[in-house]
Model the fold of this input.
Amino acid sequence: MQRFLTCGTGSRGLILGNSPSRSPRDIGPRRRSPRSKRRIIALEILTSHEYVSTEFRRDTQVLVCYEFRIRLYSKGGVIKTFLGSPNKETAQIVVGGSDYYCNVDPRISIAKLKKGTRVLVNEAYVIVGDLGYDMSGPVTKITELLGPDRLRVGMEHGVQSIVLQRSQDLMKETLKVGDEIRVDPNYRIAVEVLSHTKTEEYYLETVPELPWEKVGGQEDALSAIKDAIELPLLHADLFAKFQHQTPKGFLLYGPPGCGKTLIGKATAYNLTKQLTEKTGEDMQQFFMHIKGPEILNMWVGESERMVREIFATAREKRKEGFLPFIFIDEAESILGTRRAGRYSSILSTLVPMFCTEMDGIESLNEVVIILASNRADLIDPAILRPGRIDRKIKVDRPDREAAREIYRIYLSEDLPYDPDLVQRMGGVSDAVAHLIDKVVETQFSHKDENRFLDVILRSGKRDTLYRGDLVSGAIIASVVERAKELAIKRAISTMLEEGISESDLLVSLNTEYVENDIFPPTDIVEDWLKLIDYDSENVVKVSPVRGNEKPAGPSHVI
Done:
């Protein structure tokens, strides 16, 4: 007697056997389309009739088996996310927030499927294809690390907190709170870590080779910093004997352009060099240059989060062997004095957050904090108290001798100078010394053409400030650059060997004070207090000398 094959679903696909006694109800997958269900019900009605022959019933079972086999190995279907495999033959998938267990096509290796990848599932709910990771999806930030394979995200802008699993490739990544990650469309698996936040890339600044000798005109400030950072390293036993605490941070305050940022970078370079020589380890600095206004954000809690990320990045880099430096420029913009009032401002929460993070730092061996400000009187006293910012170092404007030293750094002997001047002075060294003496004498002379600002004090006293009273390292550098530009233009026009001349420096000096954008164009006292070394409570009025203004050119307005 001829035996017909029947079909059924096994753990990995189609099973063919000699079981004619199984009814069509047992044939097929667990899930069927409406059309398939109607067809099977019709066949059951036909085969259940008592007048239907046995051969017809068996032929009908074979047809149903062939139909199911076509659906079983069909490549068409839907795309779902692979969550894992409970055993060697079953896969767990998710679609629309619901989990399913399904079979896997024997031609697909379940061991090669990665958690979080997309899989193709056919009508019979069998995985028939591996589509890899999705290239798009929602982006969120990590708020907490829950063990080696889970993350908590959300809690920002009204988003509910959700716990995600790491994808298989993300298990190898080192994640931290604040990192941005891309999630699968079902919001179950963290698929990819995006580029790190500003704290590591945008704020990072390269520190050049900058020994103390390259910082001119600030002997007092450099001496104070050297005593604060070098003595605890060179005489650690003596400091431990006296139980003397090393400082945590510094405040550099003074007029703009006087070298506060340069001193901060020099501190990073020299302190790292001292630690390398002391410990014998190859240590690198991690200099984070942060402008105060960059932290301010209109969203509630976002500025505080950025402060946490900055300190978390610094601590993480210290564990990796770096020596992190947090240099905050314009510190008064984010760490200003908190005011009592009905309406709270961002400073009421940002200053306490900064204080909390600073309290978690033991000494400069962990993280070095340097604040720079033009108005130290506007910084909250809680920031400047001992135990947080232990050293307040004033960066003054250079005097006559300091300006001469700064000019000597920028007017090096390897630059081209006026051949006639070099020949007349008997060498390059004497020519450079003559140029420096001439420009310094012109800049610091108390002539009427050098009068720059009149300051009226509360006592009735009237002080007159000259150009030399408002000199800075930035102005000196700009004067030298302008002189170089004049020499280059003259060399191009004459096609002769030219160099920096005395007239180039004097013309550049006058042009710099006329066109310099540092000085405010108005007589508003608050604007000038950032530039002059006066107590804000004693100044009544400032009056710029109008003779130093740039002459107005012809109008181009039609």
The chain has five domains: 6-72, 78-132, 139-193, 212-394, 416-548.
